[in-house]
Amino acid sequence: MGLEKEASSSSYYLPTYPREDTPLLAKAPPLSSKFKTFANIFISIVGAGVLGLPYSFKRTGWVMGLIMLFTVAFLTYYCMMLLVYTRRKLESIMGLAKINSFGDLGFSICGPVGRFSVDIMIVLSQAGFCVSYLIFISNTLAYLVSKTNTASILGLTPKVLFLWGCFPFQLGLNSIRTLTHLAPLSIVADAVDISAKGVVMVEEAFIFAKNRPELEAFGGLSVLFYGIGVAVYAFEGIGMILPLESEAKDKDKFGKVLALGMTVISLLFGAFGALGYFAFGIETKDIITTNLGQGLVSTLVQLGLCINLFFTFPLMMNPVYEIVERRFCHYRYCLWLRWLMVLLVSLAALLVPNFADFLSLVGSSVCVVLGFVFPAMFHYLVFKEELGWSCIISDGAIMLFGFIIAVTGTWSSLTEIFAPKA
């Protein structure tokens, strides 16, 4: 493991440059109260993944979907706390320099290989999130336009046109050097997002009360791993847990605050997924907002969600820029590299037609490794001599579960993505 070897040099290799945990504000914020910590946890986890849950429930059945969702929520919380305990152990017992991020933790335990592995997974996950944003935006806008006009222009479908229409604006937003200038947009985007999702849930409740479609409780084992992938994606926020715990004023209560936050979020996610499926049954689409039909409120809700994801895109890409600029440009700002990353993400979005299928792919292939495998592995490497067989069994079981989901879930998602559609 090499903890003693790295301890003396960790302060040299953990430079005070902007990293994936760089705050939106230029000055370091004061320590957070329990309420602010709860709010930060909520904002860090709740994202676009919840929009794919109704379709996932359609595939898996609503009972199986809820069981998987709550199971993934518990495992995610458990693995988040493994990271916190591992960081505390290294800082207090081994005397290492302050470990601020997931990448720092990987370096402290496994050296450069550990940091590189975490960096790769963070780049893939964050870029994957942004691909899903572009899929949602382009598909939603194409759906809104298709109500009045379905003709293609220059042989390009409305989805492709809207995606490339976003491209130059994203180049501009992603050229901004610091997140400080994006903070107001982030606040507005979060407010719009929460309001829009609230309206969606209310509309779904009224539609369910009126239509009462036929529902399926269990979808079979063939879609089990698909549903787990979507659920893992929905709860992905583990990269921000160490920075959030560092900013908490009462660190002894952080575990309870995190548990409360995960409980509230999982209940909201369960309600959103179940209501969406209850409202539309077998007709539930991969992007639930396209089920809402025509009307001013429906259009405003869909536009609101698109605006939120549009301005969230550069924020989610920031960890990617931090890593690639650190590794290829010696921490220097590099405009052409940022533009290249935006281009690659846009091209990837063109290749994936289904929003929920892509959520399952990212959740199974990348988020499972970040959320389950790495935390359990790091915890085992640090605590194996202290905890003995209990540590080996618990951490080993989580790592095994993560590998199984990564292989089977990725295969299931790729099969869905490339399967011929009727």
From TrEMBL:
Source organism superkingdom: Eukaryota
Protein name (Swiss-Prot/TrEMBL): Uncharacterized protein
